[in-house]
Amino acid sequence: MASLGARTNVTSSPNHVEIPIHANANNVVEPQPIQGVEESNIDYSQRAQWLRAAVLGANDGLISVASLMMGVGAVKEDITTMLIAGFAGLFAGACSMAIGEFVSVYTQYDIEMARIKRERKGNNNNNINEVNEEAQREKLPNPFQAALASALAFSVGALVPLLAALFIRNHKIRLAIVAVAVSLALLAFGIVGAVLGNTPVRRSCLRVVIGGWMAMAITFGLTKLIGSAGI
């Protein structure tokens, strides 16, 4: 008979996982948590914030600038006009993403700091509270880093349609090349986001690609309609 506190292992065939079990003072066995599952959950949780900002920024830059260029291309065949509109969209969008992310993350930072200070006032041990407050402060997201990451991600996505149209002089071929390049980039972003986020790849790709096509088609069609009406 095993003594109290002794470790008991449940073993089976090589296809099964060995689960360590410990007996407590009341001789009741307690299964231990599986470390791999916890680490996996923590890993994906830590990825969530930067992944969201990066994927959102890149997709926003890609779709926004591509749709803007397609809209201008619907009424203007001049490559210079199309490129200027694209670069203007890149600069404006990058600034907008950076400011929006900065305000959002800073608001979250202020809320968390207010909560930490309230918890500190409710406890008596100031030394321990100061250490805990500093540790929690370091875990909070940095608004400046988040703003820079969003602006860079937007710019990377926006460069795809600009580079695709840069050296194509023929108007119709230029529009087709932009559409193909944007579709491939959307597919790549969908795959990367699905793999890093541990989500279904096919569903993620379809959602991103179809959304991008709709944005470009709607912008092209409405701009063409307005241009035809002579407004």
From TrEMBL:
Transmembrane segments: 79-99, 146-168, 175-196, 208-227
MF (Gene Ontology): iron ion sequestering activity; iron ion transmembrane transporter activity; manganese ion transmembrane transporter activity
GO cellular component: vacuolar membrane
Name recorded for this polypeptide: Vacuolar iron transporter
Coiled-coil annotated spans: none
Membrane topology type: Multi-pass membrane protein
Tagged with keyword Membrane: yes
Superkingdom of this protein's organism: Eukaryota
Role: Vacuolar Fe(2+) uptake transporter.
Keywords for this protein: Ion transport, Iron, Iron transport, Membrane, Transmembrane, Transmembrane helix, Transport, Vacuole
Protein family membership: Belongs to the CCC1 family.
Compartments it resides in: Vacuole membrane
Pfam families: VIT1 (PF01988)
GO biological process, one term: intracellular manganese ion homeostasis
Reactions catalysed: Fe(2+)(in) = Fe(2+)(out)
